[in-house]
Design a protein that fits this description.
With 279 residues, the protein is of the alpha/beta class. It folds into 2 domains: 141 residues, HUPs (Rossmann fold, 3-Layer(aba) Sandwich), CATH 3.40.50; 121 residues, 3-Layer(aba) Sandwich (Rossmann fold). A 10-stranded mixed β-sheet has the order 3-2-1-4-5-12-9-6-7-8, sandwiched between helices. The protein has a two-stranded antiparallel sheet with strand order 10-11. The chain starts with a strand and ends with a strand.
């Protein structure tokens, strides 16, 4: 079991190069096809409206500028992919907003790679809560790279946040290609006594056995605390030297508003290591 197609968000952000390099390393390790997707930032619904000829509107010149920006971003992607020796690469310039374009194209990939939002370096045409939106709407695992730090080989020591939920189950299953290549895997249960109906008589035993059948051996750590779970997970990751956090992503969308769970929100805002989330 491995990833066959990996999709990475490409834009003008100063963080784009780091996320592209991480996506490329995973693609090399997995023998996957890497797709770099840049969005122009103009909704696809405008292009689909046959009553509007964008070439005859006031924004035609601006569209040319946005296309040029997208092509520049894809040129950086091509340069990084070539320097790393990727054998199977594809670029796409998509006429859409970042959130809509990524969520749509992610349906045809095994993994999506993007960056944590950086409030100190916003990117024109990219919504501040892009990771949340894509995670909730793409139906694929999303690997989110922190906006601070460098991460050479994320996945050598993953930390799994396990609460026996549907979201956590999907995250663990979607992370198996990375977990199978890890040097060490730690599975954390936070206050499992409050969820014995889901965890069973021996919290962590069933999921550990499931992973063992995939040739993944895990160290199960049970942690009792009154501290916020999101902060506990990030603290545990730092103490263990973990370089990847695997967890369920909690929340739902209501029109354009996103309601994010407390643990998910804490991790997305204060993450210090790459996080693989599934909703």
């Amino acid at each position: 079991m491995s990833y066959k197609t990996i999709l990475v968000h490409v834009d003008q952000s100063k963080h784009a190069a780091e996320r592209i390099r991480i996506a490329a390393r995973i693609a090399l390790d997995q023998g996957a096809h890497l797709v770099g997707v840049a969005m122009t930032g103009i909704s696809r619904f405008l292009y689909e409206d046959s009553a509007i000829d964008l070439n005859r509107t006031m924004i035609a010149q601006h569209i040319d500028f946005l296309n040029a920006q997208g092509q520049q971003a894809l040129a950086q992607f091509d340069a990084i992919a070539e320097s790393m020796g990727l054998p199977s690469v594809e670029t796409r310039l998509v006429h859409d907003e970042a959130e809509g374009g990524l969520s749509l194209h992610a349906r045809y990939a095994d993994l999506v790679v993007l960056s944590q939002s950086d409030p100190d370096a916003p990117v024109s045409g990219v919504i501040a809560d892009l990771p949340e939106y894509v995670m909730l709407n793409c139906a694929r695992p999303v690997l989110i790279v922190p906006h601070s730090g460098q991460f050479a080989h994320p996945g050598s020591h993953p930390l799994i946040a396990w609460d026996a939920s549907i979201e956590a189950t999907r995250a663990v299953t979607n992370a198996i290609p990375l977990l199978r290549r890890a040097e060490k895997v730690t599975l954390a249960l936070i206050n499992p006594a409050s969820q014995l109906d889901a965890h069973g008589d021996e919290p962590g035993a069933d999921i550990a056995l499931y992973l063992a059948r995939h040739d993944i051996n895990v160290d199960v750590v049970v942690h009792q605390t009154k501290i916020d779970t999101g902060n506990v997970l990030l603290s545990m990751a730092a103490d263990l030297g973990s370089d990847l956090l695997v967890m369920g992503g909690y929340g739902h969308t209501r029109f354009r508003e996103m309601v994010i769970g407390g643990v998910t929100k804490t991790v997305l805002e204060t993450m210090t290591l790459p996080v693989l989330m599934s909703h």
